[in-house]
Amino acid sequence: MTHRNLGGMAGGVALALLLATTSTQAALIADGITYSLSEADTADPLTDRFTLTITGINGALDTEGGRSGVNAIALTKPADFATAAMITPPSGYTFVNGGLNSSGCDGSGNFFCFDNTAIPPIPTTAFAANSSLTFVFDVTTATGAFAGYAPDLKIDWVGSQNNYDLVSQPIAIETHTDPIPEPASLVMLGSMLLAGSVAIRRRRNH
Fold first, then answer.
1. Strands 152-159 and 167-170, bridge-based pairing
2. Is pTM beyond 0.90 here?
3. pLDDT per residue over 117-136, tens digit each?
4. How far does CA 80 lie from the centroid of its chain?
5. Residue 120: is the preceding peptide bond cis (ω within 30°)?
6. Would you call 68 helix, strand, or coil by DSSP?
């Protein structure tokens, strides 16, 4: 095996190890709008923090457009669900047990919902093209176990359309709490990087 191949193999293995410790982005696209959901730990072992980011609002790919507000958002409850609370603006959302329909949170089903108490009246000013919204909320369970949680997302929009399509689809979760490499993995990574640098030096000296 040549020094060049050794350096390339070391770099490839190192890259693979680094990629294995980073999270991947998974997004739901519905009616030209992109929904991304991420999860992170909090200081409370029973509570995780979720961030729902919505992009492309009233953009070129938005098949309905004219959106001016979100009437309600609902997600499937995790096992041993206790409660949920909206943490950051937009303000005016209250927690309701159950899912939603075209009128907002409906109080039925295995969902928790955030109801926009400001709607009605429906906002009259549409979001600018390609606007984005971010909702940050904490979810608490009796056990603090969120492993395997795979929620469905529901959202009810308002705007210039009489009735917007009710999104009701699964949404993957991006986990921000990246796994910490085990000591053996760190040693292997360091060895591979060292071998790669040695091979490069030798090649330059020849």
1. antiparallel
2. no
3. 888 887 789 999 999 999 99
4. 21
5. yes
6. strand
